[in-house]
Amino acid sequence: MKTSEELKNTVKEKYSEIALQSKEDNAASCCGVGSDCGVDYTIFSEDYSKLKGYSEDADLSLGCGIPTEFAQIKEGDTVLDLGSGAGNDCFVSRELTGEKGKVIGLDFTETMITKARENADKLGFNNVEFRQGDIEDMPIGGNSIDAIVSNCVLNLVPNKEKAFSETMRVLKAGGHFSMSDVVLKGELPAGLKNDAEMYAGCVSGAIQYDDYMNIIINTGFEAVSVQKEKPVVLPDSILKNYLSDEEIQSYKDGEFGIFSITVFGRKPNDCAPGSGCC
User: The pTM is what?
Assistant: First the structure.
């Protein structure tokens, strides 16, 4: 098993490669880097193209949801995107928060930050900024963010408890998040789990659904709910290597498997500095 630092280095290496590829290359390749593996990525990613604020140059086809749909972003809000990539969710968020608001994109990979800044310059946005940093130790002031979005990123973070603790810290009292992410339900055969993780973000890190939700609840967020859920359907050519026909049907029926979920949580209104919950 890789250490936390080894996982982070793997993420940085792979996503540096991905940043230099086109959306088409990413959508047609296994976990963003490599040759065509015949996966219909429309099952996994979502179509942003009809959303206001969408920028094709910023869409690397790497997400597993559209968290901005559910994030209740209001005009004038300060929004933080965790794992902002080339800026796709930031630019959609900027359309919602308007010129009076502010959007901050945080990403671990220097190449992604460079690409996102180039895209922001092309669009002429002066209220969207990108910072390089670790989600487990965010370079963001406490109690400063109205809404947080994230798209298929927390599964890549080794210490999810620390990531959600940091999420709590940077949100204003009453602030909230909507995060799309990848989780597992039930125990998958080891080989299938490894392949599933490849298709769902390249790097091992997806955890059990209940464990994921409990981390959020135990961090102290309230009104925690799943806003959207859908199964990530792996092709039969992968499933048949590990499962019987009956098990394949159970997998397709959602009895166990890998899922994309969009989760909401709110920081309590009375969660102020010194209150003990931040």
Answer: 0.83
Distances (CA, A) of 245 to 172, 239, 241, 248, 251: 50, 9, 11, 5, 10
> Which candidate, 151, 121, 137, 132, places its Cα nearest to that of 55?
121
| 4-266 classified as CATH 1.10.10.10 | no
Query: How do residues 214-255 score in pLDDT, each as one tens digit?
Result: 999 999 999 999 999 988 777 787 788 888 888 888 888 877
CA–CA distance, 211 with 236 (Å, rounded to integer)? 28
In 3D, which of 145, 148, 174 has the Cα closest to residue 275?
Answer: 174
Q: Provide the residue ranges of all domains of the chain, joining segments of one domain with +.
A: 4-266
Separation CA 179–CA 219 (nearest Å): 15
- E strand map for 160-233: 171-185, 207-208, 222-231
Write down the residue that tokens 């290359």 correspond to.
25
